[in-house]
Structure formats: C-alpha cells, structure tokens
Amino acid sequence: MVNYLQDFTILPKLTMLNWFFAILGAFLLGVGKAGIKGIGVVIVTLMAIVFGGKSSTGVLIPMMVFADILAVIYYHRHTQWKYLGKLLPTMIIGVLIGVWLGNDISDELFRRLMGALILVIVVIMIVMDKHTSTHIPQNSVFSNSMGLLSGFTSMIGNLAGSFSNIYFLAMRLPKNEFIGTAAWLFFIINVFKLPFHMIVWKTISIQSISINLILLPIIIFGFYTGIKLVKLINNQLYRKFIILVTAVGALLILFK
C-alpha cells in the first residue's frame, strides 16, 4: 500500500512508520471530534513528528475542518450559543496574533514553541485532575483569557482544545452540550484560519491536499468509532494515559 501511494509524484516521500503515524493521527482526529476530549495534543504531536512543526499545521487544518463538519452535523442540536459567543471574539484575536508571530519564525523555533506549549497544557491537565473541586472564575476576564490563549495556540499548533476545554468545564456544561458547543466553535475558527494557511503561511499545497484526501476515510472511521467510545470509556484512566502519551510526545517534538 505504501509503495503504491509513493508512485504518485505529488505525494511526499514518507516511510511506512510515518504513514502509520499519519493514519493514527487521522483516526484519533475523528475520535476526538466525536467527543473524546484530551487527545488533540497527541494528534498534533504525531503530525509534527511526520511533517515538521509548521508544515504539519497545514496538513491538519483541512482535515480538522472536515471532522468539524461531521461533529456539527451530529451534535448541532446541543450547541449552547451563549458560551460560544463569549469565547469566539477573543479567540479570533488570538488567531491573528498567532498568524503574525508564526509567520516570522523558523520551523525549528516553531517546533520548539509547539513542544513548550504542549508541556504547559500537560501541566494544566495534571493540575485540573488533581484539583477537580477548585473553583474556576466564570467572569469576562477568565473567558477572554481562555479565548485569547485558545486562538493563539490554535493558530500556532492546532492546540486550542485544552484551553477551551478548561473554559467549558468551568461552565459545567453537560457532555453533549460540551461537545456540541465545541464542534461549532472549532468549525468557525478553523474555517477562519484556512486563508491564513493558504495565503500567508503557505502551508497548504497540492501535496498536503493529496495527503488529506487519502486520510479522509480514516477520519470518518475514527469519528464513528469515537461516537461508540463516548459512552463506554473510563474517563479517569483514559485521561491519565493521554497525559502520559502527550508528555512523551512533547519531549519528542522538543528534542527530535
């Protein structure tokens, strides 16, 4: 299969291991968009290992938009628009800051910034797990801060999920409302990011689109697998596993 794919000149030369990581990343993207939260950092880590820091964002963004469409179709009736409205304006500002800063840094620095952001998010996830009863302020300063960080990390490395998750957890949203609101939020923000990837960063190309087309069926399979898993998964053990894998992945990105 790998040799067959490599016959197409528009495809980059990837090893069998790289194709495995790309396929696994696409599958996990579908699973994550179906409502299994916390694996976004693992997806970003896998894609960055295969395609490099900045280039991987261009490979991922069309796939994320496609997965967002699946999530919006399935969960749209659960969307809580008032919470989306509080987060979206500053998230857009964060994206614009990310476009400006990310356009002028090298791929090496970009990759290390991604790794550092991932490690920060891992620490936040660990703290939240250990202090589940800690009160999180639900005022405009909190929502604006989470929106700004979500937008910036979304543009720099498609890492916004962890910060938006913190916000939605603070709002005590039930599971389906959480997933439905996040689905619309990221569909809007990822579509907003597309022109910057194409025109400013130029991270979307014929090669990246060809990879996207190959991986779309894997995303669909992952999405429907994720729907089944939402009701079955042991959240506490799962989060501990994700935190461990995420930390290892961040170290791989930093020191690759």
From TrEMBL:
Pfam families listed in its UniProt record: TauE
Main location: membrane
Regions crossing the membrane: 20-51, 83-102, 109-128, 148-170, 182-200, 206-225, 237-255
UniProt-listed InterPro entries: TM_pro_TauE-like, TSUP
Compartment(s): Cell membrane
Bilayer disposition of the protein: Multi-pass membrane protein
Protein name: Probable membrane transporter protein
Alphabetical keyword list: Cell membrane, Membrane, Transmembrane, Transmembrane helix, Transport
Family of the protein in this entry: Belongs to the 4-toluene sulfonate uptake permease (TSUP) (TC 2.A.102) family.
Top-level taxonomic group: Bacteria
